[in-house]
Design goal:
This protein is an alpha/beta fold. The chain has one domain (7-294): 3-Layer(aba) Sandwich (Rossmann fold), CATH 3.40.50. It contains 11 helices and 8 strands. It has helices spanning 7-16, 27-39, 97-105, 125-138, 158-168, 171-174, 200-206, 210-215, 243-254, 270-273, 284-294; strands spanning 48-51, 59-63, 77-83, 109-113, 146-156, 183-189, 229-234, 259-264. It has an 8-stranded mixed beta sheet, with helices on both faces. Helix 4 (125-138) packs across helix 5. The longest helix has 14 residues, at 125-138. It is globular and about 55 Å long.
Amino acid sequence: MGCSMNRRGFMRMAGTGLLLPVVVGAAGCVNVMLGAANLIENGDAAPLEVAYGSGPRQRYDVYRPVGTDGKPLPGPLPVVMFVHGGSWQSGDKALYRFVGQALALQGCVAILPDYGLMPLTHFPAFVDDIALAIAHARQQLVLWGGDPTRLFLMGHSAGAHLAALVAYDGRYLARQGLSPSILAGVIGLSGPYDFILDTPLLQATFAGTAEQEYDAQPVNFVTREAPRTLLAMGRDDTTVNPRNTTSLAAHLRAVGAAVEEVWVEGDHGVTVGGFARIYRDKSAVVQRVREFVQRR
């Protein structure tokens, strides 16, 4: 399938799931589509890049809302850390500049981290990267106009899986001297939360001891005290089975935790593709994310 750069073509690609780097073989086309989403942005200010560790991928970009005078808003503003997808083995924060700018335009301080990828970084080390990024960024939020009491964790695809593990399995933030209670909420876009290791990719990433395979499933760690959760999913997703969202929502409700769902027509890329400039004003996912974050 070719990559069309027109608006209709972008929607078609978003619906097929090729918008995002979830299939390594489609990486070239994926990068073109994400590049197109970034090209049509109207924000010229480069994000601030910050190292949160010594590893080559332990860096994050910070996007700040600006006023009509072009100067950063003083805050305190809600903060959203967005974790990119890529099957735990690809992806880059720079590919999702359109998400950072969309969140900033909605009045949020946006933080987009990179993290270690397979095969150089193995589970659970890449989850620890996200916890470390949270701990590091939390110390700087006031400097960027962010409100540490309104820190949200959002991810797409594999990034949603990492976000869910950090939010529900308290061991990751505990290693940073923190707990999931510091999170005002978690937002999962088209994420795998309750899956079977039935593909070579999943086996290479998570197979091991029974304990390790258990630890890979976010549904195993939900409690009543879980951060309030918003789950968005495309009804026609062929990359991540929609039952992952259904199952996580059911587990959260079963323990009395707060959870909301938003279902939209489309495949794997539709939930994050809505943040692109030409779609965000009409995207049900973007609207629900905005409401979820702004709600006190």
